[in-house]
Each structure stands twice: as structure tokens, then as C-alpha cells.
Amino acid sequence: MAIYLDHAATTPMVDAAIAAMTAQMAQLGNPSSLHAPGRASRKAIEQARESLALHIGCVPSEIIFTASGTEANNTALKGLYWKGKSVGRNVIVISAIEHHAILDPAQWLAEHEGAEIVSIGVTSNGVLDFSQLEQLLKDRADEIAVISVMHSNNETGALQPITEIVALASAHSIPVHSDAVQSFKKVPLSFSTLGLTALSLSAHKIGGPLGIGILVLKRGLEIPALLHGGGQEREIRSGTLNAPAIVGCAAAADGDYPGEHVREMRNLLAQGIVHVIPDAYINGASETLPGIVNATFPGTESDTLLLLLDAQGIAASTGSACSAGVQRPSHVLLAMGHSDKSARSSLRFSLGSTTSTSDVTSVLNALPGVIERARAANLR
Ligand SMILES: Cc1ncc(COP(=O)(O)O)c(C=O)c1O
After folding, report:
1. Which of 15, 66, 97, 103 is least buried, going by the fewest C-beta atoms within 10 A?
2. Contact present, 365 and 313 (Cβ < 8 Å)
3. Per residue in 143-162, pLDDT tens?
4. Distance from first CA to last CA of the chain, Å, rounded?
5. Is the CB of 66 under 6 A from ligand 1?
6. Residue 9 falls within a domain, yes or no?
7. At what angle do helices 243-254 and 36-56 cross, to 10 degrees?
8. Contact at 8 Å (CB) between 270 and 32?
């Protein structure tokens, strides 16, 4: 059976989510309709919203359902930028290690909407360089429309100092958005405790279905919409609500994530990698998500490694975007000080609740042969 170590890309749906979703798919009714089937569908959604709000640490009305984490990020970043711009603020502050679902809308706003992007660097551990942000706020706080820094990084698992960022930003009334797609259910996360303005989540990273994301947006705050139509979700996200996916998402969020087990497997894998491949090294901070190991294998090309591992039934990833079949070096590893070459020799293994000791052992057994062949291919 295949060994799946790409849980950060997407993780299997849990049984409870499949059951809840399947049952809801058999129900008729547009949740915006006033008749009985419509009201029943609406009721299922509102129950899911209430239960999700408890897990997220927000009030139910702060939840705006979207079709993906990508859409939640776009809606938050563009909406908060436009709101800021209307009062003369045009600077968007992001970290250098954001997911493309933040990097690319920020770039779009710069190209089309007059935004100036300031990208804050990270340390060699992949954690935001807080002193850079402090200096920026000393110099230019009144120009900043929005700060968006991810809660944890999808390639290295490094946790980011969101509490400190919010404390700094709120002294200047700057809204802070955080992409917490990888953190939800993996590490403690509370919207209200963090004091954020906006937060993005995605169901398929927690055992829920694809095609459903959540934007948590502070109560009472209005931002311009990307989608216009029926006025659903505070008129910020029009479109008939996807009741089956929403109840599936809530069912997944109700489940327990075996964080201790996943971290134990992660540590076993990380320690095993440097044991079986002595010149390999692990990238990232000491405070990480439980399930991500990012490793560099000098003298290899990550594309080759992925293919060789795949041939052994092992699914891993580089974690970075692949466009038009051309693998670019990870912008995250480059920001951490890697050379092009070492960034191109790195892999992400992401573990989940189904990962077992025997999975880890199989990977560690396969690695020496895989690395040897990848190095030989690289010399050719
Ligand atoms: C950090 C991060 N943000 C956003 C996304 C996009 O989420 P979705 O797949 O729901 O669009 C991902 C998915 O890989 C991610 O890892």
C-alpha cells in the first residue's frame, strides 16, 4: 500500500465527515429559500457554523464560508487592502514565506490597484524577522492598509509570532490577517485570543471535503466583496451555500487530531533521516507544526527524489509551486538563506493521523537507495 506523506497538500477525509456530507447531499433545499426544505438546509448550516465557531474561538457570525482557503485569503487581502486604500493607506505587509494564495493576490494588487508590497524577511529558521516589522511600523505605520502573516508555514511547519504581530499592529490600528490553513486543528488556535481582524482556514487540510474554506472576519467589519450576487454571508461572499461541504467541514473539525502521535512520528522521521543520510539536514524552527519535516539532501534534485520515492510507493512533496511542469526552487527556503541549489535538493514530508511507525520505517529503509540513485543521476 502506498505510503502517503503529503498530508499538508490534502489529508484523507474522516469517516464522520463523509457520513455527514453524504447525508446532507440527499437533502433538498436551497438554504436561502424560505420554505421548509430551504429552512432545513439553513438549519444544518447554522448548526455547523455554531459548532465551527467553538473550535475557532470566534462568534458564529464571524464565519464566512468560501470555496477554498485560497478564496478566503484573496477575499481578506483584497478586501482589507481596498478598505485601507479608501482612507489613503496603500502598503501591504506580508512575510517572504507566504503561500502563493497570499503572494499572488498581493502581486495582483500591486500591478492593478496601486498597492506597494513590503515583504518582511525570515531568519534561517523560517520565522518572521520581527525586528524588521518593528522598524517598518516605526517608519511607516500610517501608510499600512493590512498586515498578512501566516500562522504556520506549509513547507517547514514553522510557527509565526502572530500574538506579537497583532500587539504591535493594534497600537497603530492596522488590521492583521493570518492564513492559518495549516495550523487549524494541529496546534491551539483561537481567533478571539489572537485578536486578529481576519483568519483563513480550509476544510480539506483537516479531514473535511475539498471545496470549502472559511474566512473569519471580525464582527461588524465590512469589506468589499469579490463575488456579487445573492448577498449571502454578510454580502461579502455571494453564492448558494454548499450545505454538504459545510456540514462535512464541521464534522471534521469535531474530530480529535492525534497531535502527540503525529509529532512522535515526525521526530522519528527527522532523526532517522539524518541518521541514514548523514549529510542531510532538517530545515525549520524549533516550534513547528506536529506533522512537517523539511529536509535537504545535498547533491540531489528534488524532482528526481519525488519520482524515485513514488516508484517505491512513497508520496512526498517539495511543498513549492510547480508551474507549467517547471519546478522552481522554493521561495520559502530561499528566504531562509538557501542557495538555489540546496533549495532544489529539498523535500517536504507531511505526516497525519494515519501515519504509522511502519510508514516511517519504510521511508527510512528506502531513503539510502533513493538518495544514492538521485545523486548518480545528478552527476550524469
Ligand atoms: C498555507 C496555505 N494557505 C492556503 C492554501 C490554499 O488552500 P486551498 O487548497 O483550500 O485553496 C494552502 C494549501 O496548500 C496552504 O498550505
Report:
1. 15
2. no
3. 999 999 999 999 999 999 99
4. 32
5. no
6. no
7. 30
8. no
Q: How far is the CA of 132 from the centre of ligand 1 (A)?
A: 26
What number does the ligand 1 atom closest to the CA of 70 have?
11
Annotated catalytic residue, options 171, 322, 357, 376:
322
Ligand 1 binding pocket mutation candidate from 154, 160, 294, 320 (most atoms within 8 A of CB)? 154
148 vs 89: CA distance, rounded Å: 15
pLDDT on residue 98: 98
How high does pLDDT run on average in the chain?
96
Report residue 285's pLDDT band, with 50, 70 and 90 as the boundaries. confident
Q: Is 214's pLDDT higher than 80?
A: yes
Q: Among the atoms of ligand 1, which is closest to the Cα of residue 10?
A: 14
Q: What is the DSSP letter of 128?
A: B
Q: Is the CB of 42 under 6 A from ligand 1?
A: no
- Specify whether 301 is located in the same domain as 274: yes
| Residue 6 covered by a domain | no
> Is the residue at 5 inside a domain?
no
Name the 3-class secondary structure at 130: helix
Annotation marks residue 249 as catalytic = no
Question: 197: which 3 cell numbers?
Answer: 481582524
Transcribe 61-107 into DSSP letters: GGEEEES-HHHHHHHHHHHHHHHHHTTT--EEEEETT--HHHHHHHH
Looking at 187, 221, 254, the residue that finishes a domain is: 254
For the chain, counts of helices (H) and of strands (E): 13, 14
CB neighbourhood size of 379 (10 A): 6
Q: Which domain does 68 fall in, by range? A: 15-254
C-alpha cell at 258: 492525534
Q: Are residues 344 and 198 in the same domain?
A: no
Rounded CA gap, 138 and 222, in Å?
Answer: 28
Whether residue 322 is predicted with pLDDT greater than 60 in this model: the reply is no
Residues in the chain, overall count: 380
Same domain flag for 76 and 185: yes
176 vs 160: CA distance, rounded Å: 13
Question: Which of 182, 186, 187 is the best mutation target for the ligand 1 pocket, counting ligand atoms within 8 Å of the beta carbon and taking the most?
Answer: 182
Q: Is 294 helix (H, G, I), strand (E, B) or coil?
A: strand
